[in-house]
Amino acid sequence: MDKTFNIAPASSAPLITIAVIGIILVLILGMLIFAGYSSRNMKFVMSDRGLLIKGGIYGRFIPKEEVAVENVKIIDLNIPSEYKPRIRTNGIGLPGYSEGWFRLKNNEKALLFVTSRSSIVYLPTKRNYSVMLSTGNPEEFRQSTEQWE
To answer: Among 76, 51, 34, which Cα is nearest to 145's?
Structure first.
């Protein structure tokens, strides 16, 4: 004669743990999807008031008075230089896309919105950080900052 015995019911702890892990995974997936969307849909709006970075987690408005216009330049991150990002301190680093706060090789703090490493607009600010942007036309963008002088 066979007898079957069921396992003693577990507490709800395993179910709660699985639910929490599931929620965390969904949040991470949502962030990755948003990062992918941002990498293709960021906008940099220049006005007579300053620069508005639209989209992305790190978007913001930078008043023209805070930009050190005389030091704005175009750089190439494929060439070894002091401006090469060294450490990501708070941001997104995906192949072909960097967004967020980084430390540069020269130890400067920088806010990056970079998709192409060959033509980056480098905008130093008067607030102890710089902004590095990939734009479709970096030279035109650089020239547009001259209106703020």
So the answer is: 51
